[in-house]
Protein: Surface protein
Amino acid sequence: MPIWWNGYLYAVTNMHSMFKNCSNLTSLDLSGFDTSKVTDMYAMFYGCSSLTSLDLSGFDTSRVIFMDDMFRDCSSLTELDLSSFDTSKIYPEVYKYLWQNSLGITGYSMNGMFAGCSNLTSLDLSSFDTSNITDFSDMFADCNKLRFLALGENFKAIPEEAALVNKEGWVTENDPEKVVSGDGEYAIIKNNGKNIYIRFDYDTKLTYPTNIKVEYSAKYHQVRFKWDKVEGADRYGIAVYLAGKWRIQTQNITDTVYTSPKNLTPGKTYKVAIAARVNGKWDTANAVKNAVTVTIK
Structure:
């Protein structure tokens, strides 16, 4: 985000504590922020306890090295999608000796990043790279309502010190009967690949399609979608994201397969969501979260 100062144009690199303790702030539009030069987002939203939603999908975090306490005490947030975040530069090797030797820092940190987000139920960290992180202390402390957690292949593990509440344990959406988080007060999860974790003491019955597979036909320029059956679902629906809006294509699918019309534009990319109707209710929120992106061949 460039700013003018004394007749010169500067690129902002430091957003340390930018909105810290804005406790009466309920909404925040950061769609115009250019964060491509920012290196410090430490405690950026710390204490924004009345903030109910936060869209950071446009944030470029490719240079950020500090994210400690970034969302601490954002106690009114219920969902947070950080799937676009690039965390690979947090305390990179080039800073190792500068910071560790001069300041005595002994690890790379996500300390307290979501601590105090007491109403957070869903968190998407599928793009997080924690390869350099050695300090996870209190990362999820007091996130007692967290029930859905998405991790990607570069988020290798959640250690006990991250303080992710365990209760009856965490399971994966693909194997909802097997607890994978140990039996202690806080979860210990070894993550392999891309997984959505669900807290076992909540109702773990899924109400949206998973394991979505895409088949392409270059001959007819169309795609076919297949997915796992959702228990109790009597209908499935398809929606496509077009011109900034989700547009329903059909809601009358009774099987677990859908084939698009023929002769779609080659090279055009679509975002597609598949929803299920269970007990008369459509779970569109999770359908959108699990949308797939396809490019016509």
Observations:
- Residues 1-204 form one domain.
- The helical segments are 93-103, 284-289.
- The longest helix spans residues 93-103.
